[in-house]
Amino acid sequence: MNETLRILGIPGSLRRASYNLGLLRAAQDVAPPGSTIEIYEDLAQIPLYNADVEAQGDPAPVQDLKQHIRASAALLIATPEYNYGVPGVLKNAIDWASRPPIGSVLNHKPIAIMGASPGSFGTARSQLSLRQSLLFTKSYVLIEPEVLVFRAAERFDANSNLHDQATRTLIRQLIEGLIHWTRELQAAGEAPRAVAAA
Ligand SMILES: Cc1cc2nc3c(=O)[nH]c(=O)nc-3n(C[C@H](O)[C@H](O)[C@H](O)COP(=O)(O)O)c2cc1C
After folding, report:
1. Contact status, residue 175 vs residue 145, Cβ threshold 8 Å
2. Are the CB atoms for 6 and 194 separated by under 8 Å?
3. Does the beta carbon of 81 lie inside 6 Å of ligand 1?
4. Which atom from ligand 1 is nearest to the alpha carbon of 80?
């Protein structure tokens, strides 16, 4: 019997009523048995990346982020799109987590991406930009299904809970794909297994 697969959900928005945080709550609802999704809600604590600060040792919030990533078999990132790109808070967190480049907690980590936007393109451009950054980290970013939630206002309620059934089904398919791929990569020795906190 497979052990429970721990997935860390990372929202790229600090907004209380974030659609992207809502996507991750929906992911928790629809995750198949045998998997758990924890949402990382402390991105606001992470300082701006500064190599001088890093040289003194990772600040506590960065250590916490890295530990959460290490303790998870896979990541599920829900990103907004800001000016056709990845929001600064998310990119900053990835920059910290990507250090050091050799031996980073992101190396060979299976990752799935999704995103919601009120506009018509559903974060297509920021997702591509995120994929580009995650090339350098040598992460294994799932190719499909693409989850591009456009015209988000029509799919979420006033509390940013996702009520659109088709989108919930698509998220379930994304998680199933991520789980399948993570298990395959782990079996092949290509992806790190989750390391529990000390
Ligand atoms: C600085 C800024 C830039 C934005 N740029 C884009 C954009 O390029 N494309 C887009 O679809 N929406 C853009 N938006 C709108 C966001 O998609 C919208 O604020 C969305 O709700 C943010 O995600 P959240 O609900 O998870 O916080 C932008 C919003 C801000 C604040």
Report:
1. no
2. yes
3. yes
4. 23
Residues 44, 9: Cα–Cα separation, whole Å: 15
- What count of residues does the chain have? 198
Phi/psi region, residue 74 (left: phi>0; alpha: psi -120 to 50; beta: rest), is beta
3-state secondary structure 50-107: CHHHHHCCCCHHHHHHHHHHHCCCEEEEECCCECCECCHHHHHHHHHHCCCCCCCCCC
Closest by CA to 72, choosing from 139, 135, 171, 25, is: 139
Give Dmax over CA atoms of the chain in angstroms. 48
Mutate to test the pocket of ligand 1, among 20, 84, 117, 126 (most ligand atoms within 8 A of CB): 117
Mean pLDDT in order along the chain per 10 residues (198 residues): 90 98 98 97 97 98 98 98 98 98 97 98 98 98 98 97 98 98 96 80
What contacts 113, CB < 8 A, 6 or more positions away?
76, 77, 78, 79, 127, 130, 131, 141, 142, 147
Which residue type occupies 137?
Answer: T
pTM flag (> 0.90): yes
Pick from 41, 77, 81 the residue to mutate for probing ligand 1's pocket: most ligand atoms within 8 Å of its CB. 81
